[in-house]
Amino acid sequence: MRLAYVTPYPPSPSDPSTTAAYAQLSSRRSPKPLQQLDLTLLHSPRVASGWSSFLGSIRTQTNLPADVRELCICRVAVLNGAEYEWEHHVPILRDAGVEERAVEEIQSRKAWRGWIGEDANAVAEEEDTQHDDYGGLNEKQRAVLAYTDAMTIGVKVSDDIFGELKNRFDERDAVEITATVAAYNCVNRFLVALDVGEMGEKKKKKE
What we know:
This protein has 207 residues and is mainly alpha-helical. The chain is built from ten helices and no strands.
């Protein structure tokens, strides 16, 4: 971790915004304690408060099925090397009914390529297109996988990839999928840059 974690309780004395931020994050996490991510964000209580409101909406206020939401979150974590996020969300992905073979696909499949440029096509790496069924992911989940990869790696999404998503989801779902992918790219960049959870150090020790 590149910054020390704050204490899990507001320092004394604390201004009202700090106390309120601690209360907000604690309420959202209850009955679990504040997590390492929270204890990093709370260096800036107002940022922590806004962050919690936004991510709380993404996690609990959308109409997305849990498997779709967690596929987005877990795939973004894989692409960004955010092991902290993967470890926190893969149990939720499994609880949402995604079978182990599909979980392995989400974790290990090479990222789709070809999104940059007007004539971009959703073309998977050649070795990934010749022999498998995407770990048993259904058509909706495959469309979400491709869309997540495009947003995360290339930012610009081709019409083909968006069309596959739009054919399978309504407009509200499309907005919520896009917001989920975007939000967790933000989360991942914060986690990885500051090495929240000491995942970078753990990886070095394994090597």
